[in-house]
Known about the structure:
By secondary structure, this protein is of the alpha/beta class. It is built from 17 helices and eight strands. An eight-stranded parallel sheet has the order 1-2-3-4-5-6-7-8. Strand 5, helix 11 and strand 6 form a beta-alpha-beta unit. The radius of gyration is 20 Å and the shape is globular. The model has no long low-confidence stretch (mean pLDDT 96).
Amino acid sequence: MCNSPLHPFLLALPKCEHHVHLEGALEPSLLFDLAARNGITLPSVADDPSFSSVSSLLDRYNRFTSLDDFLHYYFVGISCLIRPQDFEDLAWSYFQRAKADGVVHAELFFDPQAHTSRGVKYETVVHGFHRACGRAEEELGISTELILCFLRHLPVSEADIAWKEAQGHFERGVVTGIGLDSSEKDFPPGQWKAIYREARKAGIKRTAHAGEEGPVGYIREALRECEIERIDHGIRLADDEGLMREVAERKLLVTVCPLSNVKLQCVTHVSQLPIRQFLDSGVQFSINSDDPAYFTSYIQDNYCAVQDAFNLSIEEWRDIAKAAINGSWCSHDRKISIQRKVDQVTEAAIIHQEGEARQ
């Protein structure tokens, strides 16, 4: 909970989340349950005391030293996902928390290569996640899109296999877009340009992690060579005023993950993020949780952290919400529906604020 009097408004504000890794929503309690269910041997307590209990693992999650340190635990968690029900349970646990935080639309990353490399079939992964997405829409009113991410620390040839395996799901609309994640340093996005160009020709949505730990040049390369339509993380965009101006003019969405950036030591405090520069420059961005179970912070926590750091106005939050809606990959009708809800909540908050000022 933030210290701002706007907290009730922020909680009520309908949210679109564009940057959340489903595998990164694996809470320690579910991780231990899945390991027991599937007979998975976790690291021994002698080798890593963090695995002695749920609380000790949560404590370790609060002490990540880098992206690669986090990824070590991320891939341990992934090893517990075997059956379609495992993937459904994982996604459903995220959706329940997202609903409580006011999420009405979610665009969800998943990493098929992390599973097929372990012998888990691609169909198994998507079947479980897609089933949870259907439940979220029907039972919680959350519209969803799935985005297949390629792991950049693996060879491009393996990404090509994942790309080809997913063609049926792209054609049927089960999967909406492609992304690029995992370790950023030393893996410039242009290496995947052939796949991205195929995706563009096929009308498939395209995004990529760029400018998180990597330089602003990675953002430029992803835009030029991969022709992405969205920038994930993108905090280094502020290092290049010309590129920032271009992104603003093209109305490309940047999916900012404030507390993730702090946890992985990209910045030491949320106040160091270019939120104010983006607002002043007209850069469209959304606020997201990234890997909420591992960073012990979901989307509402990130909204609160931004408010505590920048003391934004109701009108500025309305603009952020509108940018998130406009940058979403859902239907036009769905965008209109969400926009109406944002307008209602915003108008009520302004009326309440004006009433408080008159007292």
